UniProtKB/TrEMBL annotation:
NCBIfam families: PRK09358.1-2. Its EC number is 3.5.4.4. One of its GO terms (molecular function) is metal ion binding. Its cofactor is Zn(2+). It is an enzyme of class 3 (hydrolase). This is adenosine deaminase. Residues 19-365 form the Adenosine deaminase domain.
Amino acid sequence: MTFENQFLLPNGVDIAALPKISLHDHLDGALRPQTILELADAVGVEVPETDADRLGQWFLTQCDAGNLVDYLKTFDLTTAVMQTEEGLTRVAREFVQDLAADGVLYGEVRWAPEQHLARGLTLDQTVEAVQVGIEQGIDDAERAGRSIQIGQLVTAMRHADRALEIAELAVRHLGNGVVGFDIAGAEAGFPASRHRVAFDFLAQEHVPVTVHAGEADGLDSIKSALFDGRALRLGHGVRIAEDITVERSDDQGTYVSLGPTAQWVKDREIALELSPSSNLQTGAIAAWGTDLADHPFDLLYQLGFKTTVNVDNRTMSGTSLTRELSLLSDAFAYDLDDLEVFQQNAASAAFLPLEDREELAEAISAGFEDAERYRA
């Protein structure tokens, strides 16, 4: 997957060259189509297309289903080729290479080890294989003159019953590549409260948590993520806008009132891991419309929520962080200052020690101050 210098702000600044932070980025949603073909051939997995370009288009077509359940079915293929140490390591290495090419300074890669055991690997072996690939990718980036840091978010599948086991796995590898915990999968009907024991354990072990919520389900899911899951960030969280009421809109502006959950999220600066293209594909913003301009991203941003921009799944959306920022800039007339706010929000929400987050913030500021040299 390559990213060309084709996404420009109106003043000519190349978005690809700007420093970025990626918080919501799935490993099994970020495979290069050619890699899928080669790994599938090696392990005997059938593929719907035998040409990389056509396979990439297949993902886009399949994922434009308008609901999360059908969208998630495409992961059957990507996870099928990630069942060996070699497969996991290669995918992780290329993941880091692609983030570095996208201008990412710090990224968190989330993935579910329990989905990669079909060919005999243990949970610990999967985490170790991914970490090997991450470190190889970081070395590749350094040789190419780029600096990047990557942390793993160990993810449990919310419809399964292994959350405590996966939480214990995260703790075992904390400090050795793992920086936090997540739950993902079909959201509706599977609130964070089902995994309260795991979240209690994580809190006792001082492990930061993000929870997929407010994507395929509404406020109750968000409440459970916050109060049962102790989430410091909301994976997507876009449907927090359901707790915002537009009182009136006139020539003087738009006046809104926030419900108690929205007020809580805003006041405590709980980061929203918003993923514009993905939110369109899964129907997460269906209540507001079907175009990016209908996305409540701008409403949340203007109201002072800690909005961050993410890709969710690069393969499924055929996207990059550069592209997502460009799309938002086009939809809402954002300028360089706005884009910097999103990166600073992400830096402050990263699952890193305070000193490291401050260094990231400084690096972002420096990169945006030098943005004039990135003019195409």
